[in-house]
Amino acid sequence: MVRSAHRRPLIGPLAAMLLGAAATMSISVTPAAAATAAPTEATAAPGFEGIVALSNCSGAVIRMPDSKPQDPALAMSNGHCVEGGMPGPGTVMVDKPSSRSFSLLNAAGDKVATLKATKLSYATMTDTDVSLYELNTTYEEMKDKHRIDALELDSARPAERMDIDVVSGFWKRVYSCAIDGFAHELREGGWTMKDSIRYTPDCKTIGGTSGSPVVNRATGKVVGVNNTGNENGRRCTLNNPCEVDKDGNVTVRPGINYGQQTYKITQCVTTGNKIDLTLPDCALPKP
Questions:
Q1: Do residue 110 and residue 135 come from a single domain?
Q2: Domain for residue 286, yes or no?
Q3: CATH classification of the domain holding 249
């Protein structure tokens, strides 16, 4: 998980990082293709409304398709960005006290307010890499006080070749590219993420972009959360995730970056923007 601004020591066991299957896996190394265009890196361009900056990561104020104006707003980032260090493999945190601060940006990328969390509603690095914080403001209050709207989470799975923007509040930069495909499993250290978004090479995300929303450029809806990339061409180690297909074959893509899909979150939120992992269609990892 290389996209937080200040790397934290890896916690949790690493000896089983390939889940005992290393000896049977077929390995290939795929070099990143040269970018045909430089990524967009805007410091004062439209597109930052509702984006937030954390102390070490990026994020966004998000709403579900059915969220109401009077609901407490939610801020989304990565699980590996939570206070206290990265959750170990298999760990799921629900409704934990938090007073985390978030710098709220307007469309130009200017800070307009500091928002505070009332709790960490959900966080995990198992199957995905996401954190959701309940904030001390409603969507209606945020609109009235700061003229800022939240970004809507798309309830549909994103598609290959979709044009996307990875919007970093920490750096106030936008990285523009497309979805190159999806990794059946993405393994990094002791963690395994499933059905991860693989970017085309134009999205050269860096430390501090962890938690940035991945936005469908055509609709403005959030389809993912940025979280990692292979820095050195190593295999399945911290800062060097590898892809594992359904047959156990491993592919290493040096320089390629990844995000986690977010549509499943919409199936786990009930009235009042509360996380409910018992909902019949909810497929997020449970404690």
A1: yes
A2: no
A3: 2.40.10.10
> What is the number of domains present in the chain?
2
Distance of alpha carbon 241 from alpha carbon 252, whole angstroms: 7
Question: CB of 124 within 8 A of CB of 66?
Answer: no
**Are 203 and 175 a contacting pair, CB within 8 Å?**
yes
If you compute the radius of gyration of the chain from its CA atoms, what whole number of angstroms results?
A: 18
How many other CB atoms are found less than 10 A from the CB of residue 16? 11
- The sign one gets for the Cα dihedral 32, 36, 40, 41 is positive
SS3 33: coil
| Residue found under tokens 């800022």 | 148
| Residue closest to 190 by CA, chosen among 257, 138, 241, 139 | 241
Q: Which of 81, 123, 108 is nearest to 209 (CA)?
A: 81
Digit-coded pLDDT (tens) for 82-137: 999 999 999 999 999 999 999 999 999 999 999 999 999 999 999 999 999 999 99
pTM above 0.90, yes or no: no
Give the amino acid at 220: G
